[in-house]
Amino acid sequence: MKYQKIALGVLDFYNIIKYLLIIKMCQSNCDNYKNTGEVIEEGGGGNQPPVEVGNAIELFSKTGNVGDLFFGLNSIGTEKLWVYTGHTWQVMGETIEMIAQEDLNIGELVEMGTIDNNVIKTNSAGDTGFVGVVCVKNVSAGERCSIAINGVWFVGVLAKGTPYDVGNYLRPSSTGGLAEETTSVSAEPFAKIAQTTTVSVNGNVVKAVLHSQEIY
User: Fold this and answer.
1) Which residues contact 156 (CB under 8 A, 6 or more apart)?
2) Nearest CA among 134, 49, 140, 50 for reference residue 96
3) Domain residues of the chain, as ranges?
4) Sheet of strand 69-73, all strands in order from the earlier edge strand to the far edge
5) Can you tell me the distance from the alpha carbon of 53 to that of 30, in angstroms, rounded to the nearest whole number?
6) Tens digit of each residue's pLDDT (9 = 90 or more) over 172-191
7) Is the pLDDT of residue 216 over 80?
8) DSSP class of residue 57?
């Protein structure tokens, strides 16, 4: 029941974002017309920034102005409406902006560092200090970064001989920044696997639904 509520919450948020996107696009289109029905020349209108649509991978090197929107198309469950903060791209309700205390790669698990507002890789099994997962792009120490804390995201995991099975859980492993599979809710999981995946190389990713970690 708990995970049904989580799934419904993610679905509700996704639907809200779709409606906001439609409204934004309508505002942008409507502002390009005068009351007489004539098209306003480029540069006129109500100053509504267009919603750019593209592959989420384009966010790796993209910058913009504060408040710019970008709808990233990737794969089922990971389509996101991003907002530019002036430093990083964020998904409202799903990500937070932090500073990397060390070099971090996409999909790695992080916890709070030893400096204010900084994060570092998790480094122990079932790490109760888990905060979230690095998303958007790899970052160097000192850079601001986007950290996923809710929703459907790709998580870096350990390689193993059998698949990561849909419906099982992920928890921090003892290998820095990587997750491992568990079938027990008492193992301090932070996510539920959304797609069965075979992983043969440490650091490859599994699609999972992130949720608040429970401490036992």
Assistant:
1) 105, 106, 107, 108, 109, 133, 177, 178, 179, 203, 204, 205
2) 134
3) 2-153
4) 51-55, 69-73, 80-84, 89-90
5) 18
6) 999 999 999 999 988 889 99
7) no
8) G
